[in-house]
Amino acid sequence: MKLLYRHIFTVLLFIFAISTISVMAQDRAQPIDGDGVYSFLRRHGREVPRDVRAFRELNQGRLNSRGELILGRTYILPPLREGVNSSPSTSSQQTTTSRGTNPSIFGRQYSEIPSQSSNLRGALFYIIAGHGGPDPGAITRVGGHTLHEIEYNYDIALRLARNLMMHGATVHIIIQTPNVGIRDERFLRNHRNQTCLGEPIPRGQMDRLRQRVNAINRLYERDKVNYNYIRAIEIHIDSRNPRTQIDLFMYHADDVKSRRTSRTLLREMEAQYKRHQPNRGFHGHIGHRNLYILRELKPPAIMIEMGNFQNALDRERILNHNNRQAVANWLTNGLIADFKNTP
Ligand SMILES: [Zn+2]
Q1: Domain residues for 48?
Q2: Is residue 22's pLDDT more than 70?
Q3: Which of 115, 170, 202, 312 has a beta carbon 3.0–4.6 Å from 207's, enabling a disulfide?
Q4: Same domain, 294 and 335
Q5: Mapped to the 3 state alphabet, what secondary structure does 232-293 carry?
Q6: How far is the CA of 211 from the centre of ligand 1 (A)?
Q7: What is the pLDDT of residue 90?
Q8: What does the pLDDT average to over 6-18?
Q9: Residue 220 CA, ligand 1 centroid: distance in Å
Q10: What's the gap in Å between 135 CA and the centre of ligand 1?
């Protein structure tokens, strides 16, 4: 009898040891500041979105009420898949390396970056299309088309980003639409699958803002060591009474660099408008506004509103792709001037 007990005990000990080993064999890791589930999994060589559900099941009760990671906590990673190695971003999803966003984001027609100058060598930009994911931004109707602000923000953001690269800048495109490049079209098709550096954009308004701010601040921690000149630029189109023509205006963060850059940009826009539309006049202006994004971003930051989406005249500058390109060109000139004037 005693012997039997001893046998049972040995077997139990064996089972216990085996199960301990299999638990220990699971990879565990802690998130870094600003990590989302996607970036966390991707950094550890897991596949997203395929491994997300397994991750959530393995870590029940360890995520916060919004399903986000908590800093300082250790998480169990789902097992690595066969044939998946630690090289991230296998699909069409764009991620950003320290050298900036891959130009393939601009689409086949625009993925070449012909060098125009080295005027912006040593400058780094975070380019952000306002809104995205569940939030289309302002909506306007033209003919039979329902147009979303995000699509035009994104197109101008891409054009600006590409221009900056052509002058030697390093550019991170923060909000991305998979497989949608620069579009030479008037009515841009709507998408809801925008990402923040490959990560889906959450539902809640505050969660959305926090996600992009965290993503940029995380990059900035790394980039500020290597770049003296860094600017975050967010593109928007305003929405007001259809009769109001507002041209262009900017909000800047509450610091000297953001203020100076927005002044230089406005001066450049004024000069270009005078040159190209002398009869029209220009009513752009700049101001400071206590917006979450501008307040929380660590790099100097400027938010540009490209006109009134509801006003027919303002809208023409946005719907015509040549005009979108012109605006991107003028902003590029302004940023070159600002970079040159920065000691
Ligand atoms: Zn907006």
Answers
A1: 2-76
A2: no
A3: 202
A4: yes
A5: EEEEEEECCCCCCCCCCEEEECCCHHHHHHHHHHHHHHHHHHHHHCCCCCCCCEEEECCCHH
A6: 16
A7: 37
A8: 69
A9: 23
A10: 10
pTM above 0.70? yes
Query: Which DSSP string corresponds to 88-120?
Result: ---SS---EETTEE-GGGG-GGG-------STT
**Are residue 234 and residue 297 in the same domain, yes or no?**
yes
pLDDT of residue 91: 39
State the total domains in the chain.
2
Helices (H), the chain: 2-24, 37-43, 52-58, 149-166, 205-223, 256-276, 292-296, 312-319, 321-341
Q: How far is the CA of 116 from the centre of ligand 1 (A)?
A: 31
Instruction: Give distance in angstroms: CA of 308 to centre of ligand 1.
Output: 10
Rounded to the nearest angstrom, the distance between the alpha carbon of 147 and the centre of ligand 1 is 13
Domain check: are 160 and 295 in the same one? yes
**What is the distance in A from the centroid of ligand 1 to the CA of 23?**
47
336: in domain: yes
Q: What is the pLDDT of residues 286-325, one digit of tens each?
A: 877 778 999 999 999 999 999 999 999 899 889 999 999 9
